[in-house]
């Protein structure tokens, strides 16, 4: 599984620019222009795609794309 690429493929549906322009170690919301509503929709798509559940309390830890990908890799393992 390439969680990073799979996540970026999902993210592409929610942003209006190529996801390869996102620096995955920089603050996620600032670099992707994803507002809170879209973020929640995207997380729902991530949960469905990877077959995991992400509690709301864990969402505050998602600062970068790398944070999200790391979380997915741990939960899906």
What can you tell me about this protein's structure?
The chain is an all-alpha fold. The chain has one domain: Orthogonal Bundle (Non-ribosomal Peptide Synthetase Peptidyl Carrier Protein, Chain A). It is about 60% helix and about 0% strand. The protein is built from 5 helices and no strands. The mean pLDDT is about 90.
CATH class type:
Mainly Alpha
Cα-atom Rg, whole angstroms? 11 Å
- The number of domains is 1
Q: Treating each run of at least 4 consecutive H or I residues as one helix, how many helices?
A: 5
**What is the CATH third-level topology name?**
Non-ribosomal Peptide Synthetase Peptidyl Carrier Protein, Chain A
What's the layout of helices and strands?
Blueprint: H1 3-12, H2 28-32, H3 36-50, H4 56-59, H5 65-76
Provide a concise account of the structure shown.
Helix content is 60%, strand content 0%. The protein has 77 residues and is mostly helical.
Question: Which descriptors apply to this entry?
Answer:
5 helices, 60% helix, 77 residues, mainly alpha, globular, Non-ribosomal Peptide Synthetase Peptidyl Carrier Protein, Chain A, single chain
């Amino acid at each position: 599984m390439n969680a990073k690429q799979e996540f970026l493929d999902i993210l592409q549906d929610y942003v209006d620019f190529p996801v390869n322009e996102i620096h995955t170690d920089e603050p996620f919301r600032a670099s992707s222009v994803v507002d809170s509503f879209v973020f929640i929709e995207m997380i729902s798509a991530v949960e469905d795609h990877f077959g995991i559940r992400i509690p709301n309390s864990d969402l505050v830890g998602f600062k970068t794309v790398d944070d999200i990908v790391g979380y997915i890799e741990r939960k899906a393992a």
